């Protein structure tokens, strides 16, 4: 799944929930590549967002790639339902699941792409045993749970390490960065090794969203 250009995946966590249908359609109009779906359960992270039904309801509104990021405890219980709801890729957190191999196998056996996410205080090397199965490595550059946080200092080194592991063990995978991404730091994040940038406020809060997407892409 490696890309020839930087992929911009706006997080609908920052969209207007009162008019989500319009917001989803707008992402195609402004040149976004993916739709990033931040699913939070109030247990693994201290916030609640949305679940299967909203993803199913918005799926017919867009042909963009649906990138579901599960910030939930024991995701193995639910990954298949997110796939059935319309996700093209499902990623979950290393810190949230005991049976990582089994969860990845469920996703892949369902014909869906899979990703593994790691928190800012988790050693990047923990992903090594799973790299052959991954389509995406998600490096969190804030602690998950809320949008609008500041990019954590030192994250560029972690991105570079993730890219090195990908290049050596998982050339089929892309490196995705989520947290504090904005126009000011996008270029340095891309130079560190990012293939996919998740951006919430940087897109949905921009005066001109299409210009913001172009600037993020570099």
Question: What report would you give on this structure?
Answer:
The structure is a single chain. This protein is α/β, with parallel strands linked by helices. 32% of the residues lie in helices and 20% in strands. The protein has helices at 20-29, 52-58, 79-85, 100-109, 155-169, 186-192, 201-204, 209-217; strands at residues 7-10, 34-40, 65-71, 89-93, 113-118, 136-140, 174-178, 196-199. It has an eight-stranded parallel sheet with strand order 1-8-7-6-5-4-3-2. Helix 2 (52-58) packs parallel to helix 3. It starts with 6 loop residues before the first strand and ends with a helix. The model has no long low-confidence stretch (mean pLDDT 96).
User: Percent range for helical residues?
Assistant: 25-40%
Strand numbers in spatial order across the main sheet:
1-8-7-6-5-4-3-2
Give the assembly state of these chains: single chain
- Let me know the number of strands: 8
Largest sheet report: 8 strands, parallel
In the predicted model, the low-confidence regions spanning at least 5 consecutive residues are none
Instruction: List the secondary-structure elements in sequence, H or E.
Output: EHEHEHEHEEHEHEHH
Distance between the termini: 20 Å
Count of discrete alpha- or pi-helical segments spanning 4 or more residues:
8
What sort of overall outline do the alpha carbons produce when their principal axes are compared?
globular
Strand content: 15-25%
Provide mean pLDDT, rounded.
96
Give Rg in angstroms.
16 Å
Structural class by secondary-structure content: alpha/beta
């Amino acid at each position: 799944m490696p890309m020839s250009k930087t992929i911009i995946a706006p997080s609908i966590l920052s969209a207007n929930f009162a008019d989500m249908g319009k917001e989803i359609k707008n992402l195609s109009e402004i040149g976004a590549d993916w739709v990033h779906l931040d699913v939070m359960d109030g247990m693994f992270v201290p916030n609640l967002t949305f679940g299967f039904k909203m993803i199913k309801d918005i799926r017919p509104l867009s042909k963009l790639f649906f990138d579901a990021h599960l910030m939930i405890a024991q995701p193995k219980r639910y990954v298949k339902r997110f796939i059935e709801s319309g996700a093209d890729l499902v990623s979950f957190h290393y810190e949230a699941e005991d049976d990582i191999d089994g969860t990845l196998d469920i996703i892949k056996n369902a014909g869906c792409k899979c990703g593994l996410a790691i928190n800012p205080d988790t050693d990047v090397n923990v992903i090594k045993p799973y790299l052959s199965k991954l389509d995406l490595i998600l490096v969190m550059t804030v602690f998950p749970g809320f949008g609008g946080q500041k990019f954590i200092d030192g994250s560029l080194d972690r991105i570079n390490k993730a890219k090195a592991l990908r290049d050596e063990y998982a050339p089929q995978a892309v490196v995705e960065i989520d947290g504090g991404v904005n126009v000011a730091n996008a270029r340095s994040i891309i130079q560190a090794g990012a293939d996919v940038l998740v951006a919430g406020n940087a897109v949905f809060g921009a005066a001109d969203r299409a210009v913001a997407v172009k600037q993020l892409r570099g």
